[in-house]
Write a structure and sequence with these properties.
binds guanosine-5'-triphosphate; binds magnesium ion; single chain; 35% helix; 7-stranded mixed sheet; alpha/beta; GTP-bd_ribosome_bio_YsxC; septation; metal ion binding; Probable GTP-binding protein EngB; Rossmann fold
Length: 197
């Protein structure tokens, strides 16, 4: 798929204020700092479209980006950052649950997992919640450039094995690197396929 145009549309905290839900959208979520915003920039080929930072907690709002005037990419704030108040965590949970349950044009939620780590309870719990809500999702194992390919594949296999304990069917999954631009064709091809369904 060719990205001819990628434009920031709006940021907000309320799902009812998001753009009218007539176009399909693809949202990115995962632990703070896992690389959600960087992946959006890599996919669109626009370096500074989504704001990134080496410090966790950069993205705080629901951010819509319109692609080719046909579909949206949505950058969401992350979870699992220890130095966040209970109040902020609850606010995040409320906003994300509202977004996931009310956004009917959400074609796929990409849940990003740090490919360097063993399965993290916070990710598995989040994935279970997404499953219970019936939200279509896929996994993206990020930052693959930070280690060897065989190490990445090994970690992915351990994660998928863990998922098999509670899931009969595994979701689609991808390996990515925003730095090495890995996973771009596979992810855009997947989005293209879902858009055509
Ligand atoms: P929050 O908005 O804070 O939840 O973080 P995020 O998930 O949007 O992460 P972000 O894209 O801001 O990236 C966090 C840090 O990881 C930045 O320093 C990025 O440069 C770095 N990073 C993101 N993706 C990759 C990657 O694929 N490879 C490497 N080496 N670094 C990455
Ligand atoms: Mg971000």
């Amino acid at each position: 798929m060719v990205i001819r145009d990628a434009r920031f549309v709006m940021s907000n905290t309320r799902v009812d204020l998001c753009p009218s839900g007539t176009l399909p959208e693809y949202a990115f979520i995962g632990r703070s700092n896992v690389g959600k915003s960087s992946l959006i920039n890599m996919l669109t080929g626009r370096n500074a479209l989504a704001k990134t930072s080496s410090l966790p907690g950069k993205t705080q709002l629901i951010n819509h980006f319109l692609i080719n005037d046909e579909w949206y990419l949505v950058d969401l704030p992350g979870y699992g950052y220890a130095r966040v108040s209970k109040e902020s965590r609850e606010k995040w949970g409320k906003m994300i649950r509202a977004y996931l349950s009310k956004r009917e044009n959400l074609s796929c939620l990409f849940v990003l997992i740090d490919s360097r780590l063993p399965p993290q309870a916070v990710d598995l719990e989040f994935i279970n919640m997404v499953g219970e809500m019936g939200v279509p999702f896929a996994l993206v194992f990020t930052k693959a450039d930070k280690q060897s390919g065989s190490r990445t594949r090994q970690n992915v296999e351990v994660f998928l094995e863990k998922m098999r304990e509670s899931w009969e069917e595994l979701p689609a999954w991808f390996i990515s690197s925003a730095v090495a631009k890995e996973g771009r064709d596979a992810l855009l091809g997947f989005i293209d396929d879902v858009n055509r369904q």
